[in-house]
Specification:
Strand order of the largest sheet: 1-2-3
Helix content: 55-70%
CATH class of the largest domain: Mainly Alpha
Structural class: mainly alpha
Order of helices and strands: HHHHHHHEEEHHHHHH
CATH superfamily of the largest domain: Intergrase catalytic core
Shape: globular
Strand content: under 5%
CATH architecture of the largest domain: Orthogonal Bundle
Number of domains: 2
């Protein structure tokens, strides 16, 4: 039933390949644990004590609560699927509770530093340098995820309507507006890309120095190289620019629901984390301006 469950996730639920592989690995680890600990080879009929014992083992191994919670989410989905298929009559995960995760505020780059990076640092006229600036501008101007940037195709850029189309989590498409300065940069990049003689022009928008589709570590290294020049924040990853996009919009008065749609969040709760940073700014303004502060 495990293979049938994984097919259900990818075909019917339209989970990403990354999530499906993660769930497959989680269930494989569960099977290995059940065999080793209980000599039990059918995870479909595992009991609550067995599953709880596995979770406790993961805690004892000092696995991060966030990672354990993802495995718990996998178990819930799996046994809910089995119950739906009438393979089992009782869900053994009903009494399993997620672990408490320490909440941390999103790390973001200050506005002055982003202006310094994109407007003051000199990028030369080469394809590589133009591509690097494009990546930084794209992440900051749209707030797209790393996976969305990697999967972005040239045909997804609509210069007439000034938008880009991205494929987000759950294979959900969304349209994001782009500004004029980015359009100018994107056209310059495309021209340089064509002049590089990569052979057949890659369908993917952002490519490596050899014309191949970029990959996660390539973008991580690129972003970190430039953020190292303008900030000392602990995290200097592509996701930090997504946080920066949302925080700066909120600080400028953008509607929270609009930011939710731009980020591709399914619920407002995921977006509300950015209000904490905004409240800190409001407190600072209050302390400076209010006569009784």
């Amino acid at each position: 039933m495990v293979n049938e469950f994984l097919t259900y996730l990818s075909v019917e639920k339209r989970y990403s390949k990354h999530t499906t592989v993660s769930y497959k690995n989680d269930l494989s680890q569960l099977v290995e644990y059940l065999l080793t600990t209980y000599e039990f080879s059918t995870p479909e009929f595992a009991s609550y004590p067995m599953l709880r014992s596995w979770i406790v083992t993961l805690v004892d191994q000092e696995m991060q609560p966030k990672s354990i919670n993802r495995k718990i989410a996998c178990l819930r989905s799996f046994y809910h699927f089995l119950q739906k298929k009438e393979c089992i009559t009782k869900d053994p995960t009903l009494k399993i509770r997620a672990l408490k995760v320490k909440k941390s505020l999103p790390v973001f780059v200050e506005e002055d530093n982003m202006i310094k990076l994109l407007d003051l640092i000199e990028f030369n006229n080469t394809f590589e340098s133009t591509r690097d600036k494009l990546v930084l501008e794209l992440l900051y101007a749209t707030g797209i995820r790393l996976s969305e940037l990697i999967g972005l195709k040239t045909v997804d850029i609509n210069f007439f309507q000034k938008t880009i189309k991205v494929l987000g989590k759950g294979n959900k498409e969304r349209i994001i507006p782009i500004h004029d300065a980015f359009i100018v940069l994107a056209k310059e990049y495309i021209n340089k890309k064509k002049s590089e003689s990569f052979g057949n022009i890659n369908q993917f928008f952002v490519v490596t120095n050899s014309g191949e589709q970029v990959y996660p570590m390539f973008i991580y290294r690129l972003v970190r190289t430039y953020l190292d020049q303008i900030t000392t924040v602990d995290k200097r990853s592509p996701h930090v620019l997504r946080h920066t996009f949302a925080t700066h919009l909120l600080n400028k008065g953008a509607d929270l629901n609009a930011i939710k749609d731009l980020l591709g969040h399914t619920s407002l709760a995921a977006t509300q984390v950015y209000t904490h940073n905004s409240i800190d700014k409001l407190k600072s303004i209050f302390d400076q301006a209010h006569p009784k502060s």
